[in-house]
């Protein structure tokens, strides 16, 4: 196992975009309550909020398109170029929301600006994950890739925590009238500035050795990042969808939906539910590198299998227990139990996907099936949960999450170990990624 030093500049540059991306994603949904009235006619606050959240939902449908466009771009133009492109789209979308004119000033044109911003944000999110996963995997020496890839969820969770912390600060320092009038623009201005900083960091990154080898090998550039080339690896394409299915449903359940569940079902005060989510997510963020490093020692499959079993068998009793918590500490312990289970997936899912594909379609191979799985299963998880609740069958959602984990568990058992895939010609003792994917 390689003892090469961790290239921290690459890790930070490759992963920090996720922090800004998920910060922007979080503040839109959490501040929608304050800015919904700015873009639609007065009269029905519920209709205003529904219209605003409808624009939010458009972002999820754009993620597969972003995965396709930017995954292709990363395979044809390079990982660094794609990372720079995604952060440019991030900054543009946040800035558009920050300066969007109100309904009173320009009518529905403000809502159109909001929609364009969300379309850009959806494309950016769809491409950022794959560009980042591919870069972190290729720019890190063997034996350190699991640790490096874990920083994707460190940065993603960090973005949510920063957004949540800013929301708490603004709610406690500004009146609701000020927040509704102009204060809601502050988080988006901060997001645009943060993306500009990330753009500077990424401009100074080096291209990965694996991509440079592919670029200089004389292979046809016309086939790089194409759907035709990708579908010569159909098995790996559907493998990524299946292994993502259980993980993304569980992730959104214990992160995005958790606060709503603790408040609506368990009956905790919203302030307590928010604090539970904040503390649980902070601890979850801190354990990701440890789990990623563990996968470098024992392999990826043991962690994935542990997650699969834990989520399949533990979700139903955990959710039942969470539904009857009465205070902060019991809610925190149970929430942490769920988050620690899904750490087996979150800490390494990026590197596993990247190790399945050859260099010429690696970014697209990660991006497109992951974005499809996320749109179908991850982004819909809170809505599916609320549908079960409104139908009077809330426990059905617990079994839905457990069932998705069971499907993924079958995949984890049958897939090959990817830890030792060699991504460059200079890596000794590994198996070329192409051969690993062919045997899966």
From TrEMBL:
<feature type="transmembrane region" description="Helical">
    <location>
        <begin position="303"/>
        <end position="322"/>
    </location>
</feature>
<dbReference type="InterPro" id="IPR020846">
    <property type="entry name" value="MFS_dom"/>
</dbReference>
<keyword id="KW-0812">Transmembrane</keyword>
<feature type="transmembrane region" description="Helical">
    <location>
        <begin position="52"/>
        <end position="70"/>
    </location>
</feature>
<keyword id="KW-0472">Membrane</keyword>
<keyword id="KW-1003">Cell membrane</keyword>
<feature type="domain" description="Major facilitator superfamily (MFS) profile">
    <location>
        <begin position="10"/>
        <end position="419"/>
    </location>
</feature>
<feature type="transmembrane region" description="Helical">
    <location>
        <begin position="364"/>
        <end position="385"/>
    </location>
</feature>
<dbReference type="InterPro" id="IPR036259">
    <property type="entry name" value="MFS_trans_sf"/>
</dbReference>
<dbReference type="Pfam" id="PF07690">
    <property type="entry name" value="MFS_1"/>
</dbReference>
<feature type="transmembrane region" description="Helical">
    <location>
        <begin position="21"/>
        <end position="40"/>
    </location>
</feature>
<dbReference type="InterPro" id="IPR005829">
    <property type="entry name" value="Sugar_transporter_CS"/>
</dbReference>
<feature type="transmembrane region" description="Helical">
    <location>
        <begin position="397"/>
        <end position="415"/>
    </location>
</feature>
<keyword id="KW-1133">Transmembrane helix</keyword>
<comment type="similarity">
    <text>Belongs to the major facilitator superfamily. Metabolite:H+ Symporter (MHS) family (TC 2.A.1.6) family.</text>
</comment>
<feature type="transmembrane region" description="Helical">
    <location>
        <begin position="237"/>
        <end position="254"/>
    </location>
</feature>
<feature type="transmembrane region" description="Helical">
    <location>
        <begin position="182"/>
        <end position="201"/>
    </location>
</feature>
<keyword id="KW-0769">Symport</keyword>
<feature type="transmembrane region" description="Helical">
    <location>
        <begin position="274"/>
        <end position="291"/>
    </location>
</feature>
<dbReference type="InterPro" id="IPR011701">
    <property type="entry name" value="MFS"/>
</dbReference>
<protein>
    <submittedName>
        <fullName>MFS transporter</fullName>
    </submittedName>
</protein>
<feature type="transmembrane region" description="Helical">
    <location>
        <begin position="328"/>
        <end position="352"/>
    </location>
</feature>
<keyword id="KW-0813">Transport</keyword>
<dbReference type="InterPro" id="IPR051084">
    <property type="entry name" value="H+-coupled_symporters"/>
</dbReference>
């Amino acid at each position: 196992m390689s003892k090469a030093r961790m290239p921290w500049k690459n890790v930070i540059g490759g992963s920090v975009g996720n922090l800004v991306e998920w910060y922007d994603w979080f503040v839109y949904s959490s501040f929608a309550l304050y800015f919904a009235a700015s873009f639609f006619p007065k009269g029905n606050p519920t209709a205003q909020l529904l219209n605003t959240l409808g624009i939010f939902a458009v972002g999820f449908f754009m993620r597969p398109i972003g995965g396709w466009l930017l995954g292709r771009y990363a395979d044809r133009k390079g990982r660094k170029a794609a990372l720079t492109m995604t952060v440019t789209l991030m900054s543009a979308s946040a800035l558009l929301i920050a300066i969007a004119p109100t309904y009173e000033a320009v009518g529905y044109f403000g809502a159109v600006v909001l929609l364009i911003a969300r379309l850009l944000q959806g494309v950016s999110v769809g491409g950022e994950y794959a560009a980042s996963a591919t870069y972190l995997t290729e720019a890190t020496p063997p034996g350190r890739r699991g640790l490096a890839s874990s920083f994707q969820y460190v940065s993603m969770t960090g973005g949510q925590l920063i957004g949540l912390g800013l929301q708490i600060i603004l709610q406690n320092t500004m009146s609701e009238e000020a927040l509704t009038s102009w204060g809601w623009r502050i988080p988006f201005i901060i997001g645009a500035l943060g993306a500009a900083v990330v753009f500077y960091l990424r401009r100074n990154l080096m291209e990965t050795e694996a991509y440079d080898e592919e670029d200089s090998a004389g292979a046809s550039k016309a086939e790089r990042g194409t759907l035709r080339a990708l579908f010569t690896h159909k098995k790996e394409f559907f493998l990524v969808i299946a292994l993502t299915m259980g993980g993304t449903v569980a992730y959104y359940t214990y992160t995005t939906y958790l606060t709503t569940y603790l408040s609506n079902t368990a009956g905790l005060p919203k302030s307590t539910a928010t604090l539970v989510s904040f503390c649980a997510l902070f601890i979850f963020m801190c354990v990701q590198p440890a789990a990623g490093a563990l996968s470098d020692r024992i392999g990826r499959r043991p962690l994935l299998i542990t997650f699969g079993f834990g989520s399949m068998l533990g979700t139903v009793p955990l959710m039942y227990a969470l539904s009857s918590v009465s205070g902060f500490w019991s809610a925190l312990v149970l929430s942490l139990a769920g988050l620690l289970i899904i750490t087996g997936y979150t800490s390494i899912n990026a590197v596993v996907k990247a190790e399945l594909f050859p260099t010429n379609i690696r970014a697209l191979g990660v991006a497109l099936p992951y974005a499809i799985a996320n749109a179908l299963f991850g982004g819909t998880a809170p809505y599916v949960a609320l549908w079960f609740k409104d139908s009077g069958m809330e426990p059905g959602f617990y079994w839905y999450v457990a069932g998705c984990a069971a499907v993924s568990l079958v995949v984890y058992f049958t897939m090959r170990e990817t830890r030792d895939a060699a991504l460059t010609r200079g890596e000794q003792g590994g198996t070329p990624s192409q051969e690993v994917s062919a045997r899966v």
